[in-house]
Amino acid sequence: MSARMTDYLTRAEPAFKAMLALEAAVKAGPLDGMLLHLIKVRASQINGCAYCIHMHVGEALKDGEDPMRLHLLAGWRDSPLYSERERAALAWTEALTLVAETGAPDADWETVKAVFTPDEQAWLPFAIGAINVWNRVQVGFRAEHPVDRRHAA
């Protein structure tokens, strides 16, 4: 795999700056930072974005997330390591990331409504949507994540 373009963020600088502003707004919003890490990693797993998985796993670990929870994230439905709120957010993340397939089911929304405040409910789709945009940009341009030589093939 090789990058399709390396200067896309400077060529689309106004869009890049708008995405950074959206990220800052989401970070300053009412959703817990650790929950945002889980949302970003899970959506990136679904979208197959190695660049974003690498970035957001690293950020989550730096912020104190338990490594085992990150290892088990793809199997969150079968693990007792996630809270009710995290489960609702992860189900909604999957539903919106795969919206063409899921149609954003009412059952998933009802689960979100049961455990998140109206303000948090309003912010969830922005958090999920933002990481999905980043995934599409990075996958589309075949962005390569940094490689620690200890883990290189």
State the shape.
globular
**Annotation field: number of helices:** 9
- The end-to-end distance, rounded to whole angstroms, is 14 Å
Question: What percent strand?
Answer: under 5%
What is the number of beta strands? Answer: 0
Question: What is the radius of gyration computed over CA atoms, rounded to a whole number of angstroms?
Answer: 16 Å
Secondary-structure-based class equals mainly alpha
The share of residues in helices is 55-70%
Which regions contain 5 or more consecutive residues with pLDDT less than 50? Answer: none
Arithmetic mean of pLDDT: 94
Strand and helix order: HHHHHHHHH
Major β-sheet annotation:
none
Describe this structure in words.
It contains nine helices and no strands. The mean pLDDT is 94. The protein has helices spanning 8-11, 13-28, 33-47, 50-62, 67-71, 84-97, 99-102, 106-115, 118-140. The chain starts with 7 loop residues before the first helix and ends in a 13-residue tail after the last helix.
Write the layout of secondary structure elements.
Layout: H1 8-11, H2 13-28, H3 33-47, H4 50-62, H5 67-71, H6 84-97, H7 99-102, H8 106-115, H9 118-140
Task: Give the gist of this structure.
With 153 residues, the chain is mainly alpha-helical. It has helices at 8-11, 13-28, 33-47, 50-62, 67-71, 84-97, 99-102, 106-115, 118-140. The protein is built from nine helices and no strands.
List keywords for this structure.
68% helix, mainly alpha, 0% strand, 153 residues
